[in-house]
Amino acid sequence: MPSRQPSRTGRPSTGLRSAIPHTKIPLTGRATTDLAGLQRMRTSSEPGRPKTAAPFSVSASRGRVRALPPPRPNLSDPRELKKKEWKLNIAELEKVCEERSRLVSELTTQNCSLTLEMDNMKTQLNAKTMLHESACQEVARLTADGERMKREAEERESSLKAQLVTQDQKVRTLLNDVVDLRGKIRVAVRLRPFVKGEDAGESLSHIGFPDRRSISVNNGSKPTAYQFQHVFCQASQEYVFDEFKELIESVISGYNVAIIAYGQTGSGKTYTMRGGEGDQRGLIPRAVEFMFLTRNNLKSMDWTYEYAASFLEVYNDDVFDLLRNERTKLKVVLGTGRVDIPDLKTVALQSPDDLHELMLLADKNRSTAATKMNETSSRSHAVFTLRVTATNAISSEAFTSSLSLVDLAGSERAKESEVSGPRFTEMTHINKALSNLQNVIRCQLRKEAHVPYRNSKLTMLLQECLGKGNSKTLMLVNLRPSFANLTETKRSLDFAANTSQTVIGAPLKNESSQ
Ligand SMILES: Nc1ncnc2c1ncn2[C@@H]1O[C@H](COP(=O)(O)OP(=O)(O)OP(=O)(O)O)[C@@H](O)[C@H]1O
What are the UniProt keywords, alphabetically (predicted)? Predict the structure, then answer.
């Protein structure tokens, strides 16, 4: 860029201007008279004329230097024309240069502030990059620590699980040894309270309870005393269930368990087995709830349990499915040592709630009728079965077992029941089946070679619980409290006493490996 130099007139001038040739007016010490020149200078100082640098002359008279009027441009002179054109160009160029320098200075300012901003951002980015890197290192360290701790915890857990499984097996073996020691067919007695329609004010002096295992009856002549595994006197549903919990738990360990409710009509068999709602729930719903609870507790030891339920009735010596609405007689097949009912419906249970629906269906399908002895007397024997399939992922143990809860029809005398017609036929079948049951137990008691299981459908179905299989069996004998029923109560207690003497052989655990 050409540098600016002050002109002789004091105004800044560009280098370009200095590059332009001037018309030089010579200064002399001698007086000269150049009228034409003076004339031109005067003319150029007139308003409207372009101003040009005033030439100088030295007055001859006074010897002083005076500015001469600029020479008039000679427009016919091409040099003058050129000069004029240059002047215009120079003015133009000066403007452009000024604009350029303004822009340059503006851009320089902007550039400076942008450079500053960029430097700031670079500093911030560097700081953030450093932070990120240190955070990444911390994360990597924590991840490695976490993985190491997880590995250690897993190793510890599997060693604890192995210990737990061993201990669990020991506890189960001990528990079952205890249960096995309690007799072959276990027998318990339950005396129900007086219910609506009975004389609640009647005394219970004809029945005595010396302790929780004994009961005595006194018909006025001589009291007879009996001893059983347990005697429940007007006990709650919860109390009764708690007493049988241990036995039911052995199903979880692979044993078949059967609880059979026996007793005179109206003595509380259905109440004990099925019960009502809420606190009135009987053994069937409570046992299923307990099985699900135990299943959850054993999950931590890698046991998987699957449950499925079936519900049938033996009515007039025929078998019917209580979980099907259509009433079709079911075929009972006797295999080698096993009873099978091929068309019996089995329903998988996912939770205790699933049972509720099944119970309602079974209630609807079960044969009941009002008799003089019981408003809703069961006219059939009902068998609820819960099948268990268990597998253990760690020990590879596997087995199937079953819990059978049987509500027998009530024994009754035709004279007392005052039944006739179809009720009489039902009663005949009921009594025949129950007398077969007593006969089977008697044969077991006497260790006879032949036990007549096949004499009725009921004994055929129960043969696995009555000595032929490997069940742990409990007979729960129900009693009515009235003095009027004392003869039947004594008969039931005699049957219970015989049953408790019955040797059916030690139960075997069902085992198979995967
Ligand atoms: N422990 C008890 N507490 C209160 N009420 C009971 C008890 N046991 C039975 N009952 C009531 O006694 C009546 C007869 O009971 P339930 O129907 O269970 O007798 P059952 O032995 O099944 O009779 P059946 O052989 O005729 O079917 C019912 O009203 C029942 O609610």
Answer: ATP-binding, Cytoplasm, Cytoskeleton, Microtubule, Motor protein, Nucleotide-binding
